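Below sits my pick:
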Amino acid sequence: MVTPAFKPEVHGIFDPGTWTVTYVVHQGRGSSCAIVDSVLDYDPKSGRTRHTTADKVIDYVRANELQVEWILETHAHADHLSAAPYLKAQLGGKTAVGDHITAVQKVFKGIFNLEPEFKLDGSQFDHLFKEDEEIRVGSMVGKILYVPGHTPACVAYQFGDAVLVGDTLFMPDVGTARCDFPGGNAKTLYASTRKILSLPPETRLFMCHDYPPNNRAVTFETTVAQQRASNIHVHDGITEQEFVAMRTKRDDTLEMPVLILPAVQINIRAGELPPKEENGIAYAKIPLNAL
């Protein structure tokens, strides 16, 4: 049974290179924790990876004597690479994502023409969460919220009064996620936003990204009440028809994320790099004229 409302500690570590926030969710020093949406630093010009951002997560976990139980993904990100394998090697824990990741794997195995051995059953992850499944982190018992639309596999993680929403919502002055990736759907995203915004008004919402307009300082925590009052895309009173029309028109103007090609093919592997070839080097594929 999901733990009644409580207030976990949610510590965000912001990566300015990808505008991504990695979270560590716990109940205080010495407790168990979950890491959500980690970042592997990647230079698209050189193809080199680094662990600068992930090492900040490790430093925080160790400084607070936390025990990592889960390394979670809200979806297969298109804007950054996951550092899950590195964090698991350093800190332990199990990797997990929503069980609809298999639909994303199927689409992108074809787009990238991945090796025949690449499995489409999500077994690259230690666990696949089903809709409304419980998640235990020490004495915390949370819940999986299935929130597709940005991708068909998006989930949010609810722990007490806190929900880590992934890319479903952004800060109120930024709006919502795009829906033009394979399997995305604006109508479905609208329903997912309403699911989140039907939670109690005081529920804390933690964004996976912030893209601050007008020189606003980076921030990534808001509430259901604030989103319902002022989210520029889905505040109260916006109809599904209005949202779909706005989202479709806006998505038609957006460029692909800089890191989508290396990110997706690695993130559907739970962050593992592709198999090394005969020369001992792993390669990310760049499909030409395919997206």
